[in-house]
Fold this protein.
Amino acid sequence: GAVVSQHPSRVICKSGTSVKIECRSLDFQATTMFWYRQFPKQSLMLMATSNEGSKATYEQGVEKDKFLINHASLTLSTLTVTSAHPEDSSFYICSASVGSGLAKTQYFGPGTRLLVL
Amino acid sequence: DAKTTQPPSMDCAEGRAANLPCNHSTISGNEYVYWYRQIHSQGPQYIIHGLKNNETNEMASLIITEDRKSSTLILPHATLRDTAVYYCIVRDRSNDYKLSFGAGTTVTVRA
C-alpha cells in the first residue's frame, strides 16, 4: 500500500514554456501532499505543502507565482513550473502523508526530472 | 534545519549486517525518528520509524537508545541493492512536523 505516482517521469522543455507535473496517491487519499526539489549532489529541499481544497503553503524563498500548486482532489496534486528557465532544471519529487497525528508517514513518488533548454 | 547527525559515508560487505548510526541529541519527548533511503535517481523510500521502543519490519530494525538521543538502523543482511543514501530524520515540532532532509549517509554495499 501507500503508492505515490508522478507523471511525467522526465520532461525536456524550452525556456519560457510552462510544465505541469502530476502527483497521485494511488491507493489512499491524501489531504496533504508535499513538493520537493533536488539539485545534483544535494539533498531534498521542501518547496511547498499542498492542501486539498485550499491554498498551498510555500517555503521561504520559493516563488508561489512561479511554482503553481493545485490540489483539487484527495488523490491528485499538480505542480506547474511557469516560464521555466534553465536554472529550474532539477529533480522534482512529491510525497503524500498517511496516518494521523505525530506518527504521520510520508510516502514519496518516483520523481520527475525536468530539463529546461 | 536538520536536527540529526550522521556519518557522511560508510561501506558494508554484502551479506553482513549494516549498522547506520544517527545522533539526535535535541529530540523532544513526542518527536518520532524516521529513516528513509534514496537510491540513485529515485524518490526516497520509507524504511521505518519509531518513538522510543525498538521497531522491526521486513526491511530493517530500528534501535533507539533509552535516552532517545541516538538511534541505529540495522539492515540485517545487506545486498548490493541496498546501496543508497540513508536519511535519519526527526519530525520536528518547531518545523510543523515537516520532514527536513540533511545530507544523510551514503552507504555502499560491496561484494
Chain A has a mean pLDDT of 93. The interface with chain B takes residues 2, 4, 6, 34, 36, 43-46, 49, 91, 93, 95, 102-111, 113 of chain A (CB under 8 Å). The longest strand of chain A covers residues 90-98. Chain A is about 0% helix and 55% strand.
